[in-house]
Specification:
5 strands, globular, 5-stranded mixed β-sheet, alpha/beta
């Protein structure tokens, strides 16, 4: 099984994901379609056996900025964040992003 990528295209959807994180952990992945590093890390994130909510920063920078504001985590791309109870319980960027670590944070 591989990741089920779901693209976030509105701030309302982001609100819903933060609310859902109070029921179960939520994976957010900031992705750049113009970055080779991001393309490589995307292939790593494909191995996460869960829903992965993707923010494409070229088209939804407002959503990316809102994630940074709500979590207090400075924007980077690529970047993975796992939310639980509305708070980040995991975050990494660039080549520090590992599918295994994302999955481990979903079990906490």
């Amino acid at each position: 099984m591989s990741a089920n990528f779901i693209h976030i295209e509105s701030l309302e959807r982001l609100d819903t994901l933060f609310a859902e994180s109070h029921q179960r952990p939520v994976v957010l992945f900031k992705h750049s379609t113009r970055c080779g590093i991001s393309a490589g890390v995307y292939r790593e994130v494909e191995h996460v056996r869960a829903d992965v909510n993707v923010v494409t920063i070229q088209t939804h920078r407002d959503i990316s900025n809102e994630i940074a504001a709500r979590t207090g985590i400075r924007h980077e791309s690529p970047q993975a964040i796992v939310l639980s109870e509305g708070e980040p319980v995991y975050h990494a960027s660039h080549y520090d992003i590992e599918a295994q670590e994302i999955e481990a944070s979903l079990c906490k």
